[in-house]
């Protein structure tokens, strides 16, 4: 999937559940409920031994949704994500070896930034689709509104501490492509019931799309 296709799809469904899978089954069950609630994209963080299998099984079960591989911070993880069928990889910061590896390949890599200096360098390196992390800890929508004035040519995918109640602030910012988090499927560290997941997902999409 090329970057423009990814951007187009995320504009249509600008809420990305970020799942750090407790098990393959839990990840699949959550994805079932989230897709039922309208999710067209999910991110599975590759931070555990079971995560690659969870991504692989989700890809098989849902060949048409956008699947991202999160926490991709080295070339080996990037290659693994590509082999498992991820549509994009994303990192919490700049990973220069991964960025070099991803150039010209079919799996888009989204570097992480948090400061103006990092944005400037990312743009010079040819990256205009960026992750903003940890969003809420670094000023959230207020910071991104300021960034939008200075860097109107970038698009950002903020995550980190975002809650449902914060969505209207992000939805009003032109450079925000999508928001990611776990609020729509988990509460206080525990997975919600399937019907509750679907309902939260549906309401989250509405909150982002109505602005």
From TrEMBL:
CDD domains: KDPG_aldolase. The keyword tRNA processing does not apply. It comes from the Bacteria. NCBIfam families: eda. Homotrimer. Belongs to the KHG/KDPG aldolase family. This is 2-dehydro-3-deoxyphosphogluconate aldolase / (4S)-4-hydroxy-2-oxoglutarate aldolase. It comes from Cohaesibacter marisflavi.
């Amino acid at each position: 999937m090329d970057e423009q296709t990814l951007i187009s799809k995320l504009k249509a469904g600008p809420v990305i559940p970020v799942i750090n899978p407790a098990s393959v089954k839990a990840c699949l069950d959550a994805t079932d409920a989230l897709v039922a609630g309208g999710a067209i994209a999910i991110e599975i963080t590759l931070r555990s031994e079971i995560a690659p299998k969870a991504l692989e099984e989700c890809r098989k079960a849902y060949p048409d949704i956008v699947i991202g591989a999160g926490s991709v911070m080295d070339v080996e993880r990037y290659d693994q994500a590509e082999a498992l069928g991820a549509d994009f990889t994303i990192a919490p910061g700049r990973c220069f070896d991964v960025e070099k590896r991803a150039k010209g390949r079919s799996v888009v890599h989204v570097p992480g930034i948090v400061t103006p200096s990092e944005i400037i360098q990312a743009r010079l390196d040819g990256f205009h689709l960026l992750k903003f992390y940890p969003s809420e800890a670094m000023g959230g929508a207020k910071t991104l509104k300021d960034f939008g004035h200075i860097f109107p040519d970038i698009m950002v995918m903020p995550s980190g501490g975002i809650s449902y109640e914060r969505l209207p602030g992000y939805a009003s910012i032109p450079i925000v492509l999508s928001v990611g988090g776990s609020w729509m499927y988990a509460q206080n560290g525990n997975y919600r019931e399937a019907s509750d997941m679907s309902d939260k997902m549906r309401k989250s999409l509405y909150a982002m799309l109505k602005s």
